Amino acid sequence: MTFFIAVGSLCAICGILAILLVIADRYLNDYGICKLIINRGAREEEVEGGDTLLGSLNSIGLFIPSACGGQGSCGLCKLKVSAGGPPLLPTEEPHLDATEIKENVRLCCQLKVHEDMELEIPEELFNIREYKGTVESLTDLNHDIKRLRIALPAGDEIDIIPGQYIQIETPKYKKTPEPIYRAYSIATDPLDKTHIDLCIRLVPDGLCTTYVFEHLKEGDAITLNGPYGDFVLSDTDKDILFIAGGSGMAPFLSMLAHIKNEKIPRNVTYFFGARAKRDLICLEQMAAFEAAMPNIKFVPCLSEPMPDDNWCGETGLVTDVMKHHCPDLAQMEAYLCGSPGMIDASIAALTANGMPEEAIAYDKF
Ligand SMILES: Cc1cc2nc3c(=O)[nH]c(=O)nc-3n(C[C@H](O)[C@H](O)[C@H](O)COP(=O)(O)OP(=O)(O)OC[C@H]3O[C@@H](n4cnc5c(N)ncnc54)[C@H](O)[C@@H]3O)c2cc1C
Ligand code: FES
């Protein structure tokens, strides 16, 4: 009994101390105004100290890729910090190699701004900005994927390269006390500069996707920033292989629209993996692409079709089906988008069948 009282008291004291530390950091530590000196003085900004470097940069309109929303898991928010900032944090280390550590590359979602800092921001990130849109429609693509169509305000436009992604803001609601950001691949025809289309799959208990599925509705305001990413088509004339599953369909809708708009003559074979017929999406859109372009072939593959699916198409894993359709992978390029498991298996199958690793591009999520 005495033991349990002692352990309980110790836990309570530690808890109280932790809360006091948080309160002290929040209210007593006044870091004042800190200067951010960007690209050797090309730009200087003043920010309120205390926020993360990622948050501080956002507050002055500079958006750094941060697909995990600042959780320290995506490793995308890397910037070179040549002066200021605490020593390397344990949460940063797994994302940085020895050269990056030597060159003072940091994860800017992990660093807090407590003093003046000097940093380097790649020029292309200066073109990324925030957009305030309106939900034009939110429709079911299947039982767990929705298409979210966002209209930009009259007169506003966004230029994307097919394959890029944007980050949408989930405002604070009962599951999150703070707004959070999540990345979604853009599914829009790049000629349509006034809309953003996304395919969003529900992640059970996920903060952003629960908000989209249970709270967001037509006419709501929505904040986004971007576009980000280099998962884009090369300009070679090699035949193309697309492999996707689930909401990994999104970037290929944009890429196929681009191939159609520009009449790009490259042959495209697109394998879309799903478990059963109920998991397939965008079949009509795919049929329209195939009808408009003889060089496009869409191959849906079901790994576990249900008896009443009456499925006469390809059955099996994408990685197996692909080998029958594309015997000479060595001369092709592959673009993969979907779950880490599907992407890793596809890379292994492609390289084992002669495709060089440098011919494979992917977005994993
Ligand atoms: C570059 C990029 C592009 C992306 N594009 C798309 C897209 O087009 N469509 C889309 O639906 N998603 C896309 N994602 C994933 C998306 O950003 C979110 O991670 C996902 O929607 C979950 O967010 P959440 O806030 O609902 O879940 P969270 O609250 O972040 O996660 C809840 C829990 O689910 C787990 N989890 C997170 N993501 C997944 C997942 N995908 N599957 C299973 N478990 C998960 C987490 O580990 C956590 O335990 C993309 C991600 C990246 C990095
Ligand atoms: S935002 Fe993902 S690691 Fe920093």
Q: What would a concise description of this structure say?
A:
The chain contains eight helices and 17 strands. It is an alpha/beta fold and 365 residues long.
Report on the architecture of this protein.
With 365 residues, the protein is α/β, with parallel strands linked by helices. The chain folds into 3 domains: 33-125, Ubiquitin-like (UB roll) (Roll), CATH 3.10.20.30; 129-228, Translation factors (Elongation Factor Tu (Ef-tu), domain 3), CATH 2.40.30; 240-364, Nucleotide-binding domain of ferredoxin-NADP reductase (FNR) module (Rossmann fold), CATH 3.40.50. It has helices spanning 2-28, 53-59, 98-102, 207-214, 250-261, 283-292, 318-325, 340-352; strands at 33-38, 43-48, 78-83, 105-107, 117-120, 129-140, 145-151, 165-170, 180-185, 195-201, 221-228, 240-245, 268-274, 296-302, 314-315, 333-338, 360-364. The strands form 3 sheets. The protein has a 6-stranded antiparallel sheet with strand order 9-8-11-6-7-10, with helices on one face. The protein has a 6-stranded parallel sheet with strand order 15-14-13-12-16-17, sandwiched between helices. Helix 5 (250-261) links the parallel strand 12 and strand 13. The mean pLDDT is 93.
